[in-house]
Design brief:
Blueprint lengths: L1 H15 L5 E8 L5 E11 L2 E7 L5 E3 L1 E6 L2 E10 L2 E12 L2 E8 L5 E7 L4
Antiparallel strand pairs: 1-2, 1-9, 2-3, 3-4, 3-5, 5-6, 6-7, 7-8, 8-9
């Protein structure tokens, strides 16, 4: 009986987990005070998250260590500029068709922004 209740509760928790698969876009604040439109392409398989984040000059960065747990999302990306490697850590809260993100880079200021799901036309 207890096993059945626990199994049902676990299945309900999985069913309630956010599904972030698809294309998203955010206006991310830059160092110069301007914002830059950044595309995200998420692929979710259960609690595992993969995909890409749009980078500078049309490049993309692969999502690493991606996780979705309930309405929480987290992942990292890596970029290289002038021979220097930068690691960006993302944490977010999914709210329907929006994700409120905090992005951090070692030695940098955290950035907060909202990504919105791109509706299929």
């Amino acid at each position: 009986m207890i096993r059945t209740i626990l199994l049902t509760a676990m299945m309900a928790a999985v069913a309630l987990a956010a599904d972030v698969s698809g294309k998203w876009v955010a206006n991310v604040p830059g160092r110069d005070g301007n914002t830059r439109e950044v595309p995200y392409d998420f692929k979710q398989d259960g609690s595992s998250l993969t995909g890409t984040v749009g980078g500078m000059q049309g490049r993309t960065m692969e999502i690493k260590d991606g996780k979705v747990s309930g309405d929480d999302i987290s992942f990292t990306t890596e970029a290289e500029f002038n021979g220097n490697k930068f690691v960006f850590k993302y944490k977010g809260k999914v709210m329907g068709d929006e994700i409120k993100f905090t992005q951090e880079r070692e030695g940098g200021q955290p950035r907060e922004f909202v990504a919105k799901r791109v509706k299929a036309t």
